[in-house]
Amino acid sequence: MSSYIYDRTRPYLFDLRTDDRPFQHMCLLLLFNRPSLTQSIDIDYRPIAIDEFLRDLCYMLMGVSSQTFEWNEIHETFALKSDINVLGYTQATIERFSMRYIQAGNHFNVIKHYINRSSRNSETENEFCHSLRCYLRYIQKSIAIYDISKFSLVKFAAKIDPILCSL
Whole domain around residue 89: which residue ranges? Predict the structure, then answer.
């Protein structure tokens, strides 16, 4: 009869997700199962599903803060909240994916603020603001028509990027 010896070496999954702190902590907890370890680890994240993340991306593109993205009044930019962890993706992947959409959301907000604060002294400026308002409405309606609940990151980018290319 042969006996099986449990090997407590570093799991191979650590190599794939070296920058995913919450995942590493959970693996350590499962691997060593020490009560002192569970008490000393501060897991400070909120897991959300990919469809919630993509929904919040769409909200941000429409200029609305959400559970994932918030408007920073000081820097006048949207920011990904640091306590969010999208299930199945590393934090670095989500941050890289979000950057171009954050930039687009910032551009939308600049346009929206310009429209709302414009003095409209001339008819030309009034017509220009009307055109910008129509453009924003078109972009928002184009984003809203998709059922993003079944999208992956790649499919979301394939559907939304052509809409945003004019920005």
Answer: 46-164
